From TrEMBL:
Gene3D superfamilies: Peptidyl-tRNA hydrolase (3.40.50.1470). PANTHER family: PEPTIDYL-TRNA HYDROLASE. Monomer. One of its GO terms (molecular function) is tRNA binding. Keywords: Cytoplasm, Hydrolase, RNA-binding, tRNA-binding. The lineage of its organism: Bacteria, Bacillati, Actinomycetota, Actinomycetes, Micrococcales. GO terms for biological process: protein quality control for misfolded or incompletely synthesized proteins; rescue of stalled ribosome. It comes from Ornithinimicrobium humiphilum. InterPro entries: Pept_tRNA_hydro (IPR001328), Pept_tRNA_hydro_CS (IPR018171), Pept_tRNA_hydro_sf (IPR036416). This is Peptidyl-tRNA hydrolase.
Length: 198
């Protein structure tokens, strides 16, 4: 039996944080769950909300590859434990772990993909790298842009998207979900070509 993919959307738990810029990765996983008509449920072995799904439709209209989609039920800065726990439980190899997260250094609305690299001050990524013992997992990076003026980046990421950006946020979440599907179905280079040329 081939190992499933593991797609983790980062965020902080609970309604207080649900609309935060920092939670856009979790929003993408919620969208993938909606598309699969499968609710996320508390996992029995890892601190996460998770669902086993088929990601999209493969060649010939057959169901896409198996995947576990999940949101850690811990706070962002200790995301590594849930990610490592799910990877171990489902025997997911490092090259099939996809972390979906917000990115300050990318323009709002843009999506970028890569494997490995630094954490750029992102505490969720730092925790995951430590728990996995590697940085070489896949990332779907959702651009939220830099804070205006002298606003502290920590305050910025923990504030909600403004109401005027509602449509653009929905587009970003939709693009993020599509990017995950493209990554899994077509590979990193093909997905990069599609999203990085925009």
């Amino acid at each position: 039996m081939d190992a499933p993919w593991l797609v983790i959307g980062l965020g902080n738990p609970g309604p207080r944080y649900a609309g935060n810029r920092h939670n856009v990765g979790a929003m993408v996983v919620a969208e993938l769950a909606r598309q699969a008509s499968t609710p996320l449920r508390a996992h029995k072995k890892a601190q996460a909300w998770a669902a086993e799904v088929r990601l999209g439709t493969g060649p010939g209209g057959f169901p896409g590859p198996r995947a576990v989609i999940a949101q850690p039920s811990t706070y962002m800065n200790v995301s590594g434990g849930p990610v490592a726990g799910l990877a171990k439980y489902y025997s997911v190899p490092l090259e099939q772990i996809v972390v979906v997260h917000d990115e300050l250094d990318i323009d709002f609305g843009s999506v970028r993909l890569k494997r490995g690299g630094g954490e750029g001050g992102h505490n969720g990524l730092r925790s995951i790298s430590q728990s996995l013992g590697s940085r070489d997992y896949l990332r779907v990076r959702l651009g939220i842009g830099r804070p205006p003026g002298r606003q502290d980046p920590a305050d910025y990421v923990l504030s909600d998207f403004p109401a005027r950006d509602k449509v653009d946020v929905e587009l970003l979440v939709s693009d993020g979900a599509d990017a995950v599907l493209d990554l899994v179905h077509q590979g990193l280079e093909a997905a990069q070509q599609r999203y990085h040329s925009r």
